[in-house]
Amino acid sequence: MKTVTAREFYHSSKLVDELPEGGQLVVTANGKPKFLVSRYGERPKMTRKLAESLSSDWGTPPDFDSVAFLQSLKK
């Protein structure tokens, strides 16, 4: 795990490119860690099967009354 200052991070984008796969980079400001950057492998290709598994349409029943449901949450 490598540690760099925020100034170094913003001025040198190749710090992330040089990270090994799965490597991490801690960005600090005023000596305190602010955020962590991780590098992973290639982004997975979007296939039809992957898109269907990630879709948010869970098949809401047609007789579901969303307004009544929201009103019940306010009580």
Written account of the structure:
This protein is an alpha+beta fold and 75 residues long. The protein has a domain at 1-41: YefM-like fold. It is 35% helix and 23% strand. The protein is built from four helices and three strands. The chain has helices at residues 6-11, 14-17, 48-54, 66-74, and strands at residues 2-5, 24-29, 32-38. A three-stranded mixed beta sheet has the order 1-2-3. A hairpin with a 2-residue loop joins strand 2 and strand 3.
The portion of residues forming beta strands comes to 15-25%
Distance between the termini: 49 Å
Helix segment tally = 4
| H-E order | EHHEEHH
What Rg, in angstroms, do the CA atoms define? Answer: 22 Å
Give a quick rundown of the structure.
With 75 residues, the protein is an alpha+beta fold.
